[in-house]
Automatic annotation (TrEMBL):
The lineage of its organism: Bacteria, Deltaproteobacteria, Candidatus Desulfacyla. This is CoA transferase. Keywords: Transferase. Pfam families: CoA_transf_3. SUPFAM superfamilies: CoA-transferase family III (CaiB/BaiF). Gene3D superfamilies: Crotonobetainyl-coa:carnitine coa-transferase, domain 1, formyl-coa transferase, domain 3. InterPro entries: CoA-transferase_III_domain, CoA-Trfase_fam_III, CoA-Trfase_III_dom3_sf, CoA-Trfase_III_dom_1_sf. It comes from Candidatus Desulfacyla euxinica.
Length: 420
């Protein structure tokens, strides 16, 4: 079992003789594109794992062609999306469809602890790189396969992006939640959250498999469905229907209460007052208007029945005040209100500045820029920015020549053949 454990002999050590980073010594091979898989491996790279990202020769990961771009001018080395998802990784170009490329892939997989791939079901097997093929050369390899609907079932070959995954999982059915536009069609979660969330689920699964490998000495294949990962994150809605056959809606039927996301003078404010003392605090905040004494406003049932009318009255007040003003005064009264933060608000947040959440980093094409760090503060193995997202094929020489032993002239031949 000893030969299947993680080699920590060459990792950086701190003054206590321990690895500097939580995942130092863990070797990850990434054969993914766009968001879910790269976010999974980015999280591990940020924790110290060595991640080698494999991209197609010439064009690379499609994320390179996705915005945002500086001055809105597309450039394969200037995509903000690609930069964020691939920091702290090494990057090589490789086409495993070609015989030489397949052999290189096998050589890399032989030394890896983890492979994360997001190809359509059957593609890895067709190339001779399926889990059964790889485990013959590396029985300790953990393979994470991320697909829209899983590797089995009638939907296994269906494609999926953030938009249709948000709806296919039921995630969008309740959106916009707590909104004055409750009757509009369902909308997907913003910011490609439907791609990022499966990446987080994948990280947890991989780390659990890594722990199990430490005990058993064996790797395993993980089949992860984006649809199922998003359903699992909804928690209440799917469980409610599974047990009670109740379809929860964004209006909430008889349980809907006034509030939600309401417009104010400089944006939007979120107001949630399900408890009586919270409602009383809200009324104190807005000056105890005469309508708050009306019979239909004195208890939960009345307020629920007249939620739309009450919201119109609340909006008359919120539009006269800024979100920060409402937030500060509401907090002083223990009233659950919160501003809907814009990106500008977050960059100027005193809280985030205090914790150093946004770090200034450099990139050869993008120059100096700020990026989010880690939400977790490790006392002994902190987050570090070690390298920007790789340029296309940036690590080819380091990996192919220094690690795998290819000669420079051999690399030129492989380039000519379109292998790398």
């Amino acid at each position: 079992m000893e030969d299947e454990t993680i080699n920590t002999s060459e990792v950086n050590k701190n003054t206590k003789g321990l690895p500097e980073r939580a995942l130092d010594g863990v070797k990850v091979l990434e054969y993914c594109s766009l968001v879910s898989g790269p976010y999974c491996t980015k999280t591990m790279a940020d924790l110290g794992a060595e991640v080698i990202k494999i991209e197609p020769p010439v064009d690379g990961d499609p994320a390179r062609r996705m915005p945002p771009f500086p001055e809105d001018k597309p450039h394969r080395e200037k995509s903000g999306l690609f930069f964020y998802l691939n920091t702290n990784k090494q990057g090589i170009t490789l086409d495993p469809e070609k015989p030489e490329g397949k052999q290189i892939f096998l050589d890399l997989a032989k030394e890896a602890d983890i492979l994360v791939e997001d190809l359509p079901p059957g593609d890895m097997e067709r190339m001779g790189l399926g889990y059964d093929d790889l485990r013959t050369i590396n029985k300790g390899l953990i393979v994470m396969s991320i697909t829209p609907f899983g590797l089995t079932g009638p939907y296994r070959q269906y494609k999926g992006r953030a938009l249709n995954m948000s709806h296919a999982s039921g995630q969008a059915f309740l959106l916009p939640l707590l909104s004055p536009h409750a009757n509009r069609p369902p909308v997907k979660v913003g910011g490609n959250t439907s791609d990022y969330d499966p990446g987080l689920v994948a990280v947890v699964a991989v780390l659990a498999a890594l722990y199990w490998k430490g005990i058993s000495g064996q790797g395993q294949h993980i089949d992860m469905s984006k649809q199922e990962s998003l359903i699992s994150m909804q928690r209440v809605e799917s469980v409610t229907y599974a047990n009670d056959q109740i379809v929860m809606t964004r209006t909430g039927n008889k349980t809907r209460m006034p509030g939600g996301v309401l417009p104010c003078r400089d944006g939007h404010i979120v107001i949630i007052t399900p408890e009586e003392h919270q409602w009383n605090a809200l009324m104190t905040l807005i000056g105890n208007p005469a309508w708050s004494k009306e019979p239909w406003c004195r208890d939960r049932e009345g307020r629920s029945e007249h939620a739309d009318d009450i919201n119109k009255l609340l909006i008359e007040w919120t539009k006269q005040h800024t979100k920060e003003e409402i937030f500060r005064k509401g907090q002083a009264l223990s009233c659950p209100v919160s501003p809907s933060k814009s990106a500008e608000d977050l960059m100027n947040s005193e809280q985030l500045k205090h914790r150093g959440f946004f770090a200034e980093v450099t990139h050869p094409f993008l120059g100096s820029l700020k990026m989010p760090t880690s939400a977790s503060r490790f006392a002994e193995s902190p987050w570090l920015f070690e390298r920007p997202a790789p340029l296309l094929g940036e690590s080819n020489e380091e990996i192919y020549v220094e690690r795998l032993g290819y000669k420079e002239e051999e690399l030129e031949i492989l380039k000519t053949k379109g292998v790398i």
